[in-house]
Write a structure and sequence with these properties.
The complex is a heterodimer of chains A (about 130) and B (about 230). By secondary structure, chain A is mainly alpha-helical. Chain A has helices spanning about 15-40, 45-65, 75-85, 85-105, 115-125. The longest helix of chain A has 29 residues, at about 15-40. Chain B is built from 8 helices and 2 strands; from the N terminus they run H-H-H-H-H-E-E-H-H-H. Chain B starts with a helix and ends with a helix. The chains are: A mainly alpha (about 130), B mainly alpha (about 230).
């Protein structure tokens, strides 16, 4: 085995099983919370908790199962940094969907839909 | 020039991999990054449509059935079983990767077999879940009956509910399916001694990365469809 080109000495069956128990505990916790506690704490707080716990699970899967924590910093950056764009996409579309929901069912202000369109052809007609 | 390079040498000067892995593994990582963006696009589109909808079916109402349990109300129990199967199969895969590093051909095969069985078990569960939704709950690509109860009658829910569910879990299921096929091919290659002759089991690691990615995506499918 060409161990000199690898750096996986850190991963052991003991650490792998430990990660498994953490993932299992988080998942069981999430389900138990969803069934019994989510009606108590409400939708927003519950969803925030689910997101935090899911990101934690993703962290454990990537770092231990996918060996990411034993890799060099350059590999972690080249894979990790592009995914930060998703934070922007999620934020932008969450804001947009909220404003869309508020807009729905509301009547358009009178004259609003023709204002921009009307100005341009006015110059063309002479 | 030479005085500059001897004064300060960097991993970017050439002659070595700046990311510390070989070509094949780096490309597997980049493939997974692009695949992550594909899944993200699907899940974010789902989230956007769901958030702008005035009403959305409650997952604990939609996913409350369990095989052979009739009409028993068991919210999220079946999907928990599916999650458990996938985590378990991820563990056996990473143990196979570990044995690959030690060069233990027999032990790699020993851990690959439960990994493949886990993959098939997950796909079987998904087949049951889809069948249940289509046959018993009449969920279609453009319509479903998970609407608000009105005058004691079921009404139609959001038109895209079925489509988003089937496309996203189907795309994930397709990844699981191809992962199982790749795992089988890998196990055959290992048992033939291909990587012993090569003197290196990195292929087990690359296939392992793909298999863990499938588990990673499931974390977010589970979050978006079943927990939210």
């Amino acid at each position: 085995m060409s161990h000199d080109t690898h750096s996986h000495e850190g991963s052991t069956p003991k650490k792998i099983w430990k990660t498994f128990w953490i993932l299992l505990a988080i998942t069981i916790g999430e389900i138990a919370y969803a069934i019994w506690l989510s009606p108590v704490f409400g939708k927003t707080a519950s969803n925030l908790l689910y997101v935090i716990l899911s990101v934690a699970k993703a962290f454990f899967i990537i770092s231990e199962f996918m060996h990411m924590k034993y890799e060099v910093k350059n590999l972690i950056r080249t894979v990790g940094l592009p995914t930060l764009l998703l934070i922007w996409l999620i934020t932008a579309l969450a804001m947009e969907s909220k404003s869309w929901k508020e807009m729905m069912g509301k009547p358009m202000p009178k004259g609003a839909e023709t204002e921009h369109v009307a100005a341009a052809p006015a110059e063309a007609h002479h | 020039m030479s005085s500059v390079t001897t004064a300060k040498s960097s991993v970017w000067d050439g002659g070595q991999s700046p990311v510390g892995v070989r070509w094949g593994k780096l490309m597997m990582w980049y493939f997974l990054v692009s695949d992550a963006f594909t899944f993200s696009a699907l899940l974010i589109a789902y989230g956007t449509i769901r958030m702008m909808s005035p009403w959305w079916p409650d997952p604990q109402h939609v996913f409350k059935s369990f095989p052979f349990m009739g009409h028993a109300n068991l919210p999220l129990m079946f999907v928990s079983l599916m999650t458990f199967i996938l985590i378990m199969s991820s563990v056996t895969m990473v143990l196979a990767v570990y044995e690959g590093h030690q060069g233990n051909r027999k032990k790699v095969i020993m851990w690959m077999i439960p990994t493949i069985i886990g993959g098939f078990a997950f796909l079987s569960c998904q087949a049951w879940e889809w069948t249940h939704l289509i046959v018993d709950e009449h969920t279609r690509l453009t319509s479903n009956l998970f609407g608000p109860i009105f005058n004691g009658e079921e009404t139609h829910g959001p038109a895209q509910f079925g489509q988003l569910f089937f496309v996203i879990t189907g795309f994930h299921g397709f990844h699981v399916f191809s992962g199982v096929i790749i795992n089988i091919l890998l196990t055959i290659a290992v048992s033939k001694g291909v990587y012993d002759r090569k003197g290196d089991y990195e292929m087990v690691e690359k296939v392992g990365l793909y298999w863990h990615f499938v588990d990673l995506v499931w974390v977010f499918v589970f979050l978006c469809f079943y927990l939210f």
